[in-house]
Amino acid sequence: MNTICSKIITKNGHSTKELGRKLGSLIADNLNSGNISSNNIAIAMYGDLGAGKTTFIQGFGRGLGVSEEYYITSPTYNIINEYPVYLSDSYKSSNTIPKIKLTLYHIDLYRIGSPDELEYIGFDDVASSDNCVIIIEWPDIISLYNKKIIKFDMDVTIKIDKDFNRDISLTAYGLESINLLKQVA
Ligand SMILES: Nc1ncnc2c1ncn2[C@@H]1O[C@H](COP(=O)(O)OP(=O)(O)OP(=O)(O)O)[C@@H](O)[C@H]1O
Ligand SMILES: [Mg+2]
């Protein structure tokens, strides 16, 4: 499969959030314009404790279209957080009840000790659902799961460098993700 990788260094949490926002809003734009055909987009977030994964996702959610009414918090304890996303602003000016266009699932598998537990938290349902964007912190355990139920479109890896800046690599798999990543850089 075709792959490209792009690297960015951020010097503070705000810049990491802004990078997340940029990726989220590009996904929203590309979904709106029909340039992304997949209705289930999955992103894996790698990096040590405190690297900035949740910080990135806070910006990502806003960029994608999660309303300011929702505070995007770490799903460390509840494991799966779910947010409605409206792809365009058009619903705001109409009198009709807004329809949710897609769901953002923010998942943190840090506390999942064995792959069997994935089934109990409802991971299969999320991974196979339509009209969603799934972004997962600590996804490594999924590779030990016997059901190969999720295919990541993109990986984001955050490393803390010697000056405590963050070295962020984004890797895209497949043509649609590659086109998207080219717009980020
Ligand atoms: N360049 C940077 N990018 C991201 N975060 C930074 C940066 N510089 C400092 N920080 C700080 O590092 C912390 C990152 O915390 P965050 O919760 O996002 O990490 P995490 O990778 O999600 O950790 P965990 O694995 O515990 O969930 C925040 O307090 C943030 O302000
Ligand atoms: Mg986190």
Shape: globular
Largest sheet: 7 strands, mixed
Query: Which fold name fills CATH's third level, the topology?
Result: Rossmann fold
Bound molecules: adenosine-5'-triphosphate, magnesium ion
Radius of gyration equals 16 Å
Given helix and strand content, the structural type is alpha/beta
CATH class category name:
Alpha Beta
How many domains? The number is 1
Mean pLDDT: 92
CATH architecture annotation: 3-Layer(aba) Sandwich
Structure description:
The protein is an alpha/beta fold and 185 residues long. The chain has one domain: P-loop containing nucleotide triphosphate hydrolases (Rossmann fold). It has five helices and seven strands. It has helices spanning 13-32, 53-64, 117-120, 123-127, 175-184; strands at 3-10, 40-46, 80-85, 102-108, 132-137, 154-160, 166-173. Strand 6 and strand 7 (166-173) form a beta hairpin. The longest helix has 20 residues, at 13-32. The site of magnesium ion (MG) has 5 residues, from helix 2.
Task: Write a concise keyword list for the protein shown above.
185 residues, alpha/beta, seven-stranded mixed beta sheet, 26% strand, binds adenosine-5'-triphosphate, binds magnesium ion
List the helices and strands and how they pair.
Elements: E1 3-10, H1 13-32, E2 40-46, H2 53-64, E3 80-85, E4 102-108, H3 117-120, H4 123-127, E5 132-137, E6 154-160, E7 166-173, H5 175-184
Parallel strand pairs: 2-5, 2-6, 4-5
Antiparallel strand pairs: 1-7, 3-4, 6-7
Helix pairs in contact: 1-2, 1-5
Bound molecules: adenosine-5'-triphosphate and magnesium ion.
Adenosine-5'-triphosphate is lined by residues 10-13, 16, 47, 49-55, 74, 137, 165-166.
